[in-house]
Write a structure and sequence with these properties.
9% strand; alpha/beta; three-stranded antiparallel β-sheet; four-stranded parallel β-sheet
Length: 383
């Protein structure tokens, strides 16, 4: 069986889960479930590996300086999200040298209480969504030694190390037409791409294919990473997930605008109205299938309710379970999808379910993307 490494960019545990984040997580989950019948899929997703990046540790340092007495264990994710917005709006961000202590603590495994609280909340969300791994982000591969990785990249002419003359360290993809990309600044600040490469490079020999998953805004970064990994001998492909607009805008969570659109603000009512299985399937069909690769339509809870209702009808047509013949037919369908690109594209799987063509094993596909065990024994949901 082929071995596939699914390597997504992580959602930083610094804010609430927005429709964009939920779409991304459900896309990863569907990719893993739909591909696992044809290949052994391992997911490299560990928040601790990126904690020392400025995006995370900079926020932690801000909280330590400005909110030293906050009781994060009692906060909702939206409360922490408001602090994250305030951090990005602040005009007095300290330079890299002044947050070195926090960066060192993060690199040594320390987790700020605000992020610890978010990870506990997210675990509940992941169980609610029916993800394969409700502990997503809490475990994964360790980082390789920084010096060893940089030495390898320099030897392969994939990196320019200017530290000896006070300049940055750059990934060098110019031979393939990509711009230089700083991964260590002249001030010593580490970019997330360095942590990504330290995570992935030691794993390359163990897998037949690496699938890099990311949002469209990170396309250039991940094109450079793909070039680096291919140059090191790996087979690599990319899977992009576009952001979901809210109120006509696709702004980042750091800019706000997510009030009323976080998972916790609408999920409970939909589960109560349609049941857990229909909520899970409906959200997958809506975010991954209906919004798909373009995501031009803004998210709305009314649309989520409409798709949950449609999922209820689809599940009712499927009966109480998924018989072996139906699941086997879905497996054959997915094997063909995997053969085309090396993995089962979740957008295509979702649209196949939506199309309900005569040659599409709709019920089997729905059972696979949900997990048949979930259909028969739903996970309890803490509210």
């Amino acid at each position: 069986m082929r071995r596939i490494l699914l390597a997504p960019v992580t959602v930083s545990p610094t804010k609430p889960l927005t429709p964009t984040h939920v779409k991304y997580l459900l896309s990863l989950d569907m990719l893993q479930r739909a591909t696992s019948g044809s290949a052994a899929v391992t997911v490299a997703y560990r928040h601790a590996n990126y904690a020392a990046s400025p995006q995370v540790a900079g926020f932690w340092d801000h909280l330590e300086r400005h909110h030293p007495d906050a009781v994060y264990s009692a906060m909702a994710e939206e409360d922490i999200g408001e602090l994250y917005i305030a951090y990005h709006r602040a005009e007095d961000k300290p330079p890299h040298a002044l947050i070195a202590t926090t960066l060192d603590k993060a690199a040594s495994g320390w987790v700020h209480p605000a992020t610890a609280r978010l990870l506990d909340i997210w675990e509940d969300h992941y169980r609610l969504l029916g993800l394969v791994d409700p502990f997503l982000g809490r475990h994964g591969p360790e980082l390789a030694d920084e010096a060893d990785v940089l030495r390898l990249l320099v030897e392969r002419h994939l990196c320019i190390d200017g530290r000896s003359c006070g300049a940055p360290v750059f990934l060098d993809g110019t031979a393939a037409g990509y711009p230089l990309r700083a991964i260590i600044g002249a001030d010593g600040q580490r970019n997330y791409l360095l942590y990504l490469l330290r995570e992935l490079i030691p794993l390359l020999d163990d897998y037949d294919l690496v699938v890099l998953a990311h949002d469209t805004e990170l396309r250039t970064d991940y094109q450079i990473v793909q070039h680096v990994l291919v140059s090191l001998g790996a087979a690599v492909t990319r899977f992009e997930v576009p952001r979901v607009p809210t109120d006509g805008s696709t702004r980042s969570a750091r800019h706000g605008g997510w009030r009323g659109y976080t998972l916790g603000s609408y999920a409970g009512a939909l589960v109560a109205e349609f049941g857990l299985a229909a909520f899970r399937l409906g959200l997958r069909l809506y975010l991954v299938g209906s919004l798909g690769r373009t995501a031009k339509q803004s998210f709305s809870t009314e649309h989520a309710r409409r798709w949950s209702r449609r999922a209820t009808r689809l599940l009712a047509d499927g009966g109480d379970g998924w018989d072996p013949a139906t699941v086997a037919a879905a497996g054959v369908f997915l094997e063909r999808a995997v053969a085309r690109r090396g993995y089962a594209d979740p957008n295509q799987v979702a649209t196949a379910i939506l199309g309900q063509g005569a040659d599409v094993p709709v019920r089997g596909l729905a059972g696979i993307v949900l997990g048949t065990a979930i259909m028969r024994d739903p996970l309890s949901v803490r509210r």
